[in-house]
UniProtKB/TrEMBL annotation, chain B:
Pfam families: Complex1_51K, Fer4_7, RnfC_N. It is an enzyme of class 7 (translocase). The Rnf complex is probably composed of eight subunits, including RnfA, RnfB, RnfC, RnfD, RnfE and RnfG. The keyword Lipid biosynthesis does not apply. This is Ion-translocating oxidoreductase complex subunit C. Binds 2 [4Fe-4S] clusters per subunit.
């Protein structure tokens, strides 16, 4: 079978009739301007500020790492597509984007060959061995990162794990261990991409909320358990534990760091590795958040984010096939059970239930 | 605002003898005959057909196959026009019994814009209609033929009463679009049976049934958000009345007749003025310099409309019936038919030249689909010929609005692949014996 990318469907037939020539083609005749290529380049542009701050902060080594990873990724893609006689798709920016993302997850002290290996591995194994664009199941950046982290963990261990102390850390994090950690606020471009619909919103939103409230939930459960152990019977005391959700916990300052924001806005939203159904994406976002938080709570949020999203990629296709929407007008499980409950209520208690015919 | 006619009558008109779904008409004229405006030139030979009338005065040049805007060639009457504006005598109808109205509709050549003859929608064989809907959500036809909005509203009410009578239905409703302020204002406080009506918004579970009781009237006006697409009738019926139409069925199976505002107006004209359906209002858009709505004689070639509208000159693509799902024309010698609603002219720069890439699972098609399908997955399944799986994913619900193909960043031919699978499924299951296929139930009303 031909690979989809090699199957050029000729869209246009120009019919010569009498003296006038009109183009004919299948509908739609007007489409949105957004393309795969523009999506990739927009992500690269959104990552430029954080790269510049990293270069300013870490100096020339950061620039070398970024250039090495990007060039290695692009050359690998070009080479593979030449060898296997595919269309060369270097121009769509996907390889460059993967290289840049890998570079941002590297510590500045790493030797120069490390990002080269990383960029190569991401494209060769992470992307093309799994079938190329749209077919890979694990985010190529994370595949490569996990490989390099395991193989040369000495070089890949960051010098320090950042956490947000003073407010100025949001602007410029002095404890950054990876290139991307230098400035959480510089990743704000990702939010703009969501606003412009270049990136969908369900995964990042639920992911962020889960990470944000995970620590409060842990604190809440701990307090309840403590009350039970003390044998407290007063229900008001149990109710009062609800207020823990209003207090920001200490752990939150470890969670809101550059790598986590990068994971939420750029890694988890890589479209081939997320479910396509609406419900599936909401659950996937929560799943990412829970995995990342568990890792982060008991370990650190730098490794936790990357391993967490990598694991969540593994359940994406399962979530997708379990959440295929039904026919329109079909009642969901929730609606059915709600109706069953309402039917048993005495008529006086029911709010007005409107039915047709 | 009144719609404009073309500055001059076209030299030659092409009137297809088949402007509807069903059997083609039999020509009543022959080469060399003189015809008048409104003269019947094609007679229907079965119930599923609708008569065709001349829209101009002149001489029949030929009866031959000519291009049709749907892309095929159809037997057409070609008429050389003269300056004369002579019409046949239009006789308003006094007697409006049900049978009379149905036969009048067939004789006046009234068809829906998607092709079904209106009388077959109102009186289908072996089915009983109890609600008649006029769908005016897709066309701002208020700009079409009326001097004031009130005139439009009162005429539509009269037309609805006629349609209900013809169908023998007890209830009727006019559905306007939620954001179409002009129409909503026109229908606000319109009098029906001595009672003023409010335009009822269809939100949540409040559908027509609720408002029929609420307003205590058998005729109401409701508003809902815009739905467009090639196959919207079933979805529209569900949204408005709450009645779910089975797969492979149409709204008449659940007792609902959906008429367009054009056919309602045509019926009104046919009954009160005696005029058959030989003119229609269309929109011309793109690089044009003309009013938004044009009153066009059926059979006018696109060429004449382009000449009178397009001041810029360059036209690289002509699209009939909208840029999302319309058909691109290979020649400008195609006529306006009863099913033409819109002509779009595109310049050379606007013509798309893109290439399909692999799906990147961005889910933009899933987010935009109005009937909650998963177009990207259906596309893959259709491409591989796995039609059974397409069927399990409710591919028949697709209303063919084409928005999935519009938003696709990989420029995949989503609409075409889904249509391909739908056609294949129709073909495969049309005559399968019910017992042999255990995993699916056939027939309309026993449906899944």
């Amino acid at each position: 079978m031909l690979h989809p990318r090699n199957r050029q469907i000729s869209n246009l037939v120009v019919a010569e009739v009498s003296d006038m020539a009109y183009t004919i083609s299948a509908p739609p005749h007007k489409k949105e301007r957004i393309t795969f290529s523009s999506m990739n380049w927009s992500k690269i542009v959104a990552l430029v500020p954080v790269s510049l701050i990293a270069i300013y902060f870490f100096g020339i080594p950061a620039l070398e790492i970024i250039l090495a990873a990007v060039i290695a990724a692009v050359l690998t893609e070009y080479g593979i597509q030449m060898i296997f006689k595919q269309n060369v798709t270097v121009k769509d920016g996907h390889a460059a984007m993967i290289g840049l993302m890998f570079a941002l997850l590297t510590p500045p002290e790493a030797p120069i060959w490390l990002p080269v290996v990383g960029g190569f591995f991401a494209i060769a194994i992470g992307k093309h061995a799994f079938g190329g664009i749209g077919s890979y199941i694990f985010n190529p950046v994370l595949v490569s990162w996990v490989f390099v982290r395991s193989a040369w963990s000495g070089f890949m261990t960051p010098a320090s794990i950042p956490h947000i102390g003073p407010v100025s850390d949001i602007l410029l994090e002095s404890g950054a261990g990876l290139l991307v950690g230098v400035s959480p606020i510089a990743l704000i471009g990702g939010v703009y991409l969501i606003y412009k619909r270049y990136v969908e919103w369900r995964v990042p939103l639920t992911f962020f909320l889960t990470v944000f409230f995970f620590n409060q939930a842990i604190a809440f459960v701990t307090e309840i358990v403590q009350l039970v152990q003390e044998g407290v019977l007063n229900p008001l005391l149990y109710l009062a534990t609800m207020f823990t959700f209003l207090e920001l916990t200490e752990e939150l300052s470890y969670a809101m760091i550059g790598v986590v924001i990068f994971g939420i806005l750029f890694l988890s939203t890589d479209s081939p590795t997320t479910p396509i159904t609406k419900a599936g994406r909401l659950i996937y976002g929560v799943g990412c958040g829970v995995l990342v938080s568990i890792y982060g709570y008991f370990g650190n949020y730098v490794d936790g984010t990357l391993y967490g999203i990598f694991l969540a990629n593994g359940i994406a296709s399962f979530l997708e096939s379990r959440t295929i929407p039904g026919s329109f007008g079909q009642e969901s499980l929730l609606e059915r059970s709600y109706k069953r409950v309402v039917a048993r209520l005495p008529p006086g208690l029911r709010s007005e239930v409107v039915s047709d015919d | 605002m009144e719609s404009k006619r073309l500055k001059k009558i076209p030299q030659k008109v092409i009137i297809p003898l088949k402007q509807h779904l069903g059997t083609i008409c039999e020509p009543l004229v022959k080469k060399g005959d003189q015809v008048l405006i409104g003269q019947k030139i094609g007679r229907s030979v079965s119930y599923y057909s609708s008569d065709v009338h001349s829209s101009v005065c002149g001489e029949v040049l030929a009866i031959e196959n000519a291009p049709h805007p749907n892309g095929n060639k159809v037997l057409s009457v070609i008429i050389q026009t003269t300056e004369s504006m002579e019409t046949v005598d239009f006789v308003p109808t006094e007697n409006t019994s049900q049978e009379k109205l149905i036969s009048l509709m067939q004789e006046a050549g009234i068809v829906e814009h998607y092709g079904a003859p209106t009388h077959t929608v109102l009186m289908p064989e072996d089915k009983k209609i109890d609600i008649v809907l006029i769908n005016s959500t897709a066309s701002e036809w208020i700009g079409g033929k009326y001097k004031t909005p009130k005139e439009y509203a009162s005429q539509m009410m009269d037309a609805l009463k006629l349609l209900m009578k013809a169908a023998g239905a007890s209830k009727g409703a006019i559905i306007v679009r939620k954001d179409d302020k002009e129409s909503i204002e026109a229908f606000e406080d319109v009098e029906v049976n001595g009672k003023a009506l409010k335009v009822a918004p269809l939100v949540g579970k409040r559908r027509l049934g609720y408002y029929f009781r609420d307003q205590d009237s058998n005729i109401i006006v409701a508003s809902q958000k815009r739905i467009y697409g090639k196959k919207i009738l079933n979805f529209f019926t569900y949204n408005v009345t709450g009645r779910k139409v089975g797969i492979g069925c149409d709204p008449t199976d659940v007792g609902v007749a959906v008429c367009s505002i054009k056919s309602a107006k045509a019926l009104y004209d046919a009954v009160y003025e005696g005029r058959p359906y030989y003119e229609t209002v269309i929109t011309v858009e793109g690089t044009v310099d003309c009013p938004e709505y044009m009153l066009i004689r059926i059979g006018t070639p696109f060429k004449d409309i382009i000449e009178s509208c397009n001041s810029e000159g360059e036209v690289a693509k002509i699209v009939a019936n909208g840029v999302i799902t319309g058909v691109a024309q290979y020649t400008d010698e195609v006529p306006v038919t009863k099913g033409t609603t819109r002509i779009t002219l595109l310049t050379k720069e606007e013509v798309l030249r893109d290439e399909s890439l692999a799906c990147i699972h961005c889910a933009r098609c899933v987010d935009i689909c109005p009937v909650s399908l998963v177009p990207s997955r259906l596309t893959v399944l259709a491409d591989q010929g796995r039609f059974d799986e397409c069927r399990q994913m409710h591919i028949e619900n697709c209303i063919e609005c084409g928005r999935c193909a519009v938003v696709c960043p990989s420029k995949i031919h989503v609409l075409q692949l889904i249509r391909y699978a739908k056609n294949a499924i129709e073909g495969a299951y049309a005559d399968a014996a019910p017992k042999e296929s255990s995993n699916l139930k056939l027939g309309c009303c026993g449906g899944e």
